[in-house]
């Protein structure tokens, strides 16, 4: 296949589109959209978000060292976009989007009830990088909509209608899997033929 060379840029796509909630020491809450986020460790559970220093929430999170990642559903795509293009310096995005805020259990900020999954985080380290600074955080607890959990305690993320962000556009995640971890090396199960008596 023919390929074209581009100048150095981050073309890692797609990425999650999440809503991050936070609060400053004066109890002012804000919500903003983040696409630069991901898992960085499983034990202890840790993730990161990268934020531009000019964002209002940058100061809030740097001050309190706490935030909550809210995984929105595709029904909230307009809210995701709005919270990414409007600033908390001029807009009360929580009120405008009519979010129901629930106080976190382990952090002093709230999560969005309408989002199917919420992840409470405490910042462990901040790394200055360039246009963005990386906030490395430990996951303290998560809240999952009970409708996504089956009788075997498996979380069905496909039922959450989560979305991704890819090169300036939002896309829904597919409902069906094209494989599962380890399927490429799994031994094939040979069914025994029933012998007629």
- SSE sequence, one letter per element: EEEEEHEHHEEEEEE
| Share in β-strands | 35-45%
* Class from secondary-structure proportions: mainly beta
Total number of helical segments? 3
The main sheet orders its strands as: 3-2-6-9-10-5-4
Summed over residues and divided by their number, the pLDDT gives a mean of: 94
CATH homologous superfamily annotation: Electron Transport, Fmn-binding Protein, Chain A
CATH class category: Mainly Beta
Q: Main β-sheet: number of strands, strand sense, barrel status? A: 7 strands, antiparallel
Query: What count of domains describes the coordinates?
Result: 1
Helical content stands at: 10-25%
End-to-end Cα distance, whole Å, is 58 Å
State the total count of DSSP E strands.
12
Rg, alpha carbons: 20 Å
């Amino acid at each position: 296949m023919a390929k074209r060379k581009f100048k150095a840029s981050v073309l890692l796509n797609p990425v999650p589109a999440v809503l991050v909630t936070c609060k400053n020491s004066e109890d002012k809450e804000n919500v903003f959209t983040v696409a630069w986020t991901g898992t960085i460790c499983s034990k202890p559970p840790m993730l990161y978000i990268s934020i531009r220093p000019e964002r209002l929430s940058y100061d809030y999170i740097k001050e309190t060292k706490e935030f909550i990642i809210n995984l929105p559903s595709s029904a909230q795509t307009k809210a995701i976009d709005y919270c990414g293009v409007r600033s908390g310096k001029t807009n009360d995005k929580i009120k405008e989007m009519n979010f129901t805020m629930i106080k976190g259990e382990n952090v002093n900020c709230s999560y969005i009830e309408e989002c199917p999954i919420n992840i409470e985080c405490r910042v462990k380290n901040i790394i200055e990088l360039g246009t963005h600074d990386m906030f490395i955080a430990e996951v303290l607890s998560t809240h999952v909509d009970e409708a996504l959990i089956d009788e075997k305690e498996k979380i069905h993320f496909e039922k959450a209608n989560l979305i991704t962000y890819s090169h300036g556009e939002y896309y829904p995640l597919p409902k069906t899997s094209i494989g599962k971890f380890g399927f490429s090396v799994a031994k094939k199960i040979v069914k025994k033929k029933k012998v007629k008596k």
